[in-house]
Each structure stands twice: as structure tokens, then as C-alpha cells.
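User: Sequence for Site-specific recombinase XerD below. C-alpha cells please.
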Amino acid sequence: MIYRISIVLDRRGKTSDEYKDEKCPVKLRVFSKAFKKDKRYSLGVHLTNDEFKKIWVNAENKSLRGANKEMRLKLQEFETRANKVAKEMSVFDFAKFETKYFRKSTDQKNVKYHFDLVIQKNLKNDKIGTAESYKYTLKSLTQFIDKDNTKEDASKIDKLTFTTITADWLKEYQNFMISKGKSFTTVGIYTRTLKAVFNNAIRANDLNREYYPFGLTKDNKYKIPRSKKVKKALNSAQLKTLFDTEVTNDNEQQAKDFWFFSYASNGMNLKDIALLKYSDIKEDYFTYYRAKTFDKTAEKTEIKIYLTDFTKSIISKYGSELKTGFVFNIISKEDTPETQYKKIKNFTRLINDHIKRIAKANDLPNDISTYWARHSFATNSVRKGASMEFISEALNHSDLSVTKNYFAGFEDEAKKDFANSLLDF
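Assistant: C-alpha cells for Site-specific recombinase XerD:
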């Protein structure tokens, strides 16, 4: 056994005369052979040396009655639960032991408890966006289970358990979301997040896999909906219209400039643009690591973007005068991760709002956003003859199937030209 658990009377710092009649704290002692150290945890119990010997050390003492007997049962419960928690861990770890041992007994199968764990973990690792996505899902689940509540009723989310969430429960949740005007895409995002929390609980041995509600419909499980991806790319004519359009104010000009900076930089995400530093820029190119996938892969891939006259002009126009730190004045090095997240989110909203105004005024798709720049780069690169493998590398995708989802298809005119050329031997 790589650990040893016992109940001890903590007499450290006391002489034999001092602790003889004085009450000392009774503690749970956990010794790890791997780490070669022990930790002692307070149990909220204080006994004298004689009391401790009588109640605990002399285990064969069967004459215990009343309060003394109750105390022994209480200490036995502490020790038994500690051994159970340690035994369930595949690899003993003090931090994990403490988390599990000192939580409420109901936390093991409590959905909100496990959501809070992953939210706090992401916040600790400065993954603010990921933490927010879990918060959104938890809020949605709260709205669903509280739908029949009156204002005076307490929220039911604190008592929601994994065993309550069945395939039928998830179908009801899906119907509720659709009735509120949410799309199947949104339902898919939230249920995949819930699925991740289920998997976390199972890996932590807090939940038996038999309660896992996700899977195939034929197996009476809940299948997460997948809507057909809507292709979000501008064709070459639309790109020319957007690029040549006259803007009405500085915000629209900024929106257009950053949209095309993203497009010309292989569909670079706006967050990565905000994080770009002058130290990343070389003579005719810059490099960066994609923030969205950086923590998801063991092998970190550096992306190289060659500069053009246009992208150089945007850096010159909006770049920091100090030529140090971040290139663009979207965030600053003094910002906390939470502040950076909010600033990038607000900047993205500003760009999207004004690019939509430009689009509306020029008969372009009204739902255009910075996301379209990435899709437009992929689609138009293929139309210009680039291979799918080239595009996949440019987008830093792990699989070609992901790249294909970005491809918006050839223009109808191109299809007609191809059809007419089939008999042109």
C-alpha cells in the first residue's frame, strides 16, 4: 500500500507534563510512501491523552458506554471514509485526497459541484473563455429545472444529481431549449459540455458508468444533435465588394481593416491578433501559436504568416507607437487574464457589429462576422487552386476532415463552366 491512514492525538509542541491533562487535537494522519511525508488534518475533536487511549488506542475496550462509545464510532467513521477515498484513487495525491475527503457526502454525485470544480480549474489556469462556457451551460440547466418554480422557490440546481439526468431528461431539456428559440447547434454545445462533466465525474470514480446517458438512440441513450454546418464564406465577388466599399465612420473602417487582416493572415482568430507581439514579427513574416488549440495538443505547432503590403499597412496604422509588447492596442501586459478576456470579447463585438452594418448597406450576408474571414480564406484558397492539405496546414487543423468543414463549395458559375466543359475534348 502506498499510503497509510491513522487517527492520532496531535501532541506536537507539548511536553509530556503539558499534554497529560490538557486536551489536544485529534487528527487524521495520512502518510504517503511515495512522497515520504505525512499530513495531519483536524477533525474538530479534542481529547486528553488518557481519554484518547481509552477511546481509541485500546481498541479491545468493550466497556465503552455513552459519549465515549459515540466518540469511538465517530473516529472510526473518519478513518473508514479516509481509507475509502484513498482506495478509490488510482494514484494517491494529497490535493485530490483533500478535495474528496472534506467535501460534503452529497457532492460526489452533485452536478453543480462538478461544474464548479471544472470552472475553478479553468479560472486557475487562466482559461477564462472555457470557464465562461461551463457557466453558460450551468445557467441553462438551472433555467430548465427551475422552469416550474415560482419566485419564492429555491433553485433546484444545488440538488441536481447525475442519476437524475437520463436520456429522457436530456430530450426534455432539448425540447425546452428549442421552445425558447435556441438552435440545435446551441443544444449540442451545452450537452457536450454536460457530457464532459459526466466524464470528469466518472474518471474521478464519483460516478458509475452505468449512469452515463449519452450514446446511440438505438441503445436508449441520448444522442447529441449535430446540425449541418452552415457555410460562412464570401465568394470572390463579395470579397471585392466588401474590400472596395466606402465606410461612413472610423469604427467601420477599423472593422473592415481588421476583418481583412484576419482574412489575409490565413484566417487568424481575433484573439490571436490581440495577443500578437512585436517580438513575433520578423522581416517579412510573423509567427504565433493558436490560443484555441495550444493546451489541447502535446506538440505545439508554430504558425508562420507571411506579411503583405496590406497586412504591413494595418500594423503600421494600428500598431503601438512604442513597438514593444503587444502589436495592437487591444489589450495590455498589465491586464489580468479576466480583463484581457473582456477586452478581446468587447473588441470582437465592436468589429462584428460594424462589419454587419457595412454588409447590410452593400447587400452582403447580414450575419457576417470575423468568423467568416477564416472560412473565406479557406474557401477562396481552394478555389484559387490550393490543395486541401495546404489549407489544413495553414489553418493549423489536426485533421483534414476539420478543414473540409470550412470549405463553402464552389460558386454556381464555376460548376456551370465545369459541366459545359465535360464534352469539350
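The radius of gyration is 30 Å.
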